[in-house]
Every structure is written in C-alpha cells, then in structure tokens.
Amino acid sequence: MTPQSPTGPVGVGIIGAGTISVQYLTHLTSFPDVTVHIVGDLFPEAAAARAAEFGVPASGSTEDVLAHPDVEIVINLTIPTAHFEVSQAIVAAGKHVWTEKPITTSPADAKTLLAAAEAAGVRVGGAPDTVLGAGIQTALRTLRDGALGAPASALTLFQSPGPESWHPNPAFLFQEGAGPLYDIAPYYATTLVLALGPVVSVSAVGSKAREQRTIGSGPKAGEVFDVTVPTQVAALLRFGSGQNATVLLSFDSPNSRTGFVEVYGTEATLAFPDPNVFDGDSALTVYRGEEATTVPATGATTGRGLGVLEMARAIRAGVPHRAQGEIAAHVLDIMVGIETAIAENSIVEISSTFTEVEPMPADFDPFAATLTEASAAV
C-alpha cells in the first residue's frame, strides 16, 4: 500500500520513458517536495537510460514501479491507448495516479477508473497542468475578483496551417484520436471549464480542407498521407451556469492565430494568455471600452510536473488537489461530445460534472520545501 507519512517529500515513480518524460523529470527532480524514486518502461533499457540521465536511483518495468515501497504517486506517460490499463494497475497497487492527457480514450473507461480510485482511497490527477501556471491562474483570479462583472460568454481560437510542415512524422496527428480536436482542445476546454464551470451540452460542425497532406521536413519529407478526421472544428459549448463559449480549432488556416481565449462579462472583457504555456508572457489584458489594462501574471512558471507537485502537497495537507481526474474526465466527455455532434449533426448532452476548484495562490512556489514539517503548506 502507499505510505501515508504526514510529512516529508512525496515519493514519485514514472511509467513511460518517452520524449515527454524529459519535461516531467527536468522539473520534478528540481522540486524539493517530491522525490523521483524510479522510472519504468515497457522497454527497461529505455527506462535505465532516462533514469541515468536525471540521476534517478532506480529503473525497471511497469511492475517494478508499482512495487516500489516509497512511491506514492505514479505518473502515467504511456501512449493514450494504454492510459486506462496502466492507470487501473496503478490504482490496484494502492497508489495515486497522475496521467497525461487524455485520462482515457473513452468516457466509460474514465468513469470506471475514477470509481475504482474512490473505492481504493487514492487520487487521480490529469494533464494538462499548463492551466496551473501563472498565466491561466492569474486570469482565473482576475475573473473571480469580479473584474469583468458577471461572465456571460467566451471565445477561443486556435488556427494554424497544421503541423505537417515541421513535424517529421505528422500522419498520426491527422488520424482517429487526434486532429485539432483531440490534440489541441484539452488546453482550451480545460481553461474554459475552470473559468465558467461544467458544460451541459455541445453542438459542432467539422470539415477537411484536403484529403491528403505532404510531410514537409525530416527523413520522410515528400511522403503523402491520408487525412481521416476533421481538420477544422467549430463548436458551441453551453455551461450549466448559463454562459456559452465558441471554440474554433483548425489545421486549415494559412495564417496562424493561437492562444486566443477571451471571456466577456457584463462590464469588461478579459483576454487570457495562451493555455498551452505556463508563464503568461503574452500578458493578460482587461478591456473596458477603449481602455486596456495589463495584468501581470503571478505564480508558477516552471513546466510539466507542476500538477504532480500541487497534487503531492494536497495529499500531505489532506485537501483536494486542483487538476482533478473528474475535470479531465469532463473534458474528455466534451471532446467526445463534439465528435458525436459533428457525426450526427446534433446537440449532445454532457452528463458528467465536477466540483469547481479555487485558483492557486499567487505565491505558490514550486521550489519551496514545504513538506518537511507537519504544517505542510499548499
């Protein structure tokens, strides 16, 4: 079973030694409130190389990570189709789960996973944790402070020509389970539900500008591949609190416009920073008529792994963590609902929900050692 020590750094293990593990390990090995004990992978030699790269003392298989006595949170960085199986095994081992997006590939599996975790008394947290960074969290605090009056609606845009010009192996991004809907929407949908609450219904349309695309760089440059999913998605989200949001996601735009999130209130408009980054360098702006006021971003600006750290501190303090599995499952429901609405030309009801969370404090410091005494701070 997972150790339940009331003090001290929280033990962490990682399953999946691929590219994304570099970002997690870079940050987690620098946070004093967590200790990375082991890296595991389907290919133990890959785990050994990654562990050596970051000075992690142990490596091995998935089973080795699950059996490690000092590991309390296991980070699931496997491919999306393996997320459910691996997360289930983590829960069965009595350990908390942090999973990369999506939480699972089907809403039914997400529901099963969350129920199993609740029965086992462990937690599930899920990416993206970019929304816990200084940019989005400052925007959420600004919204909660009443700077806009009553929030009424929102608009998000992600428009690009698509990744095939620069990605050396982009075909998978244009196949089932990807496209701009599943690849990009988690960042924007998570931001919207944190700002406006749970979604109760979606409608959407989708299209493809081209049936085939050509790889533009790398060893496969010039190869042609098929496009099997919509490459432009326009969706309308209706929230339980009465607001609505328009979401446009496109790999079909010759010009790029990304990171656009605006929330409109009865008194002002708030322009959010890019939800795909942590630091909010693009700045937050409050518009009141012709007057624009810049709001400096305050908070953590590190990178992936921030959600694991926040979850670890919450576990020690015995309070809810912020990047909850219920939120990740709700965002998955929204994406599947959009896909269904496109296919069926219908309005799709979203039945899942979550308990809204408060923004992180502006002084949240990832590099502070807060878990050395019983009065652990969150």
Please describe what this structure looks like.
This protein has 378 residues and is of the alpha/beta class. The strands form three sheets. A nine-stranded mixed β-sheet has the order 16-15-14-13-7-12-11-8-17. A six-stranded parallel β-sheet has the order 3-2-1-4-5-6, with helices on both faces. A hairpin with a 4-residue loop joins strand 11 and strand 12. Helix 4 packs parallel to helix 5 and helix 5 packs antiparallel against helix 9. The N terminus and C terminus are likely disordered.
Number of strands: 17
* Low-confidence parts: 1-5, 374-378
Element pattern in H and E? EHEHEHEHEHEHEHEEEEEEEEEHHE
Structural class: alpha/beta
Fraction of residues in helix: 25-40%
Please summarize what this structure is.
The chain has 378 residues and is an alpha/beta fold.
Protein traits:
378 residues; globular; single chain; six-stranded parallel sheet; disordered N terminus; 24% strand; alpha/beta; 9 helices; disordered C terminus; 30% helix; nine-stranded mixed sheet
List strands and helices in order, with pairings:
Blueprint: E1 10-15, H1 19-28, E2 34-40, H2 44-54, E3 58-60, H3 62-67, E4 73-76, H4 83-92, E5 96-99, H5 107-120, E6 124-126, H6 134-144, E7 151-159, H7 179-196, E8 199-207, E9 212-214, E10 224-226, E11 232-239, E12 244-250, E13 257-265, E14 269-272, E15 284-288, E16 291-295, H8 306-317, H9 325-344, E17 348-349
Parallel strand pairs: 1-2, 1-4, 2-3, 4-5, 5-6, 7-12
Antiparallel strand pairs: 7-13, 8-11, 8-17, 9-10, 11-12, 13-14, 14-15, 15-16
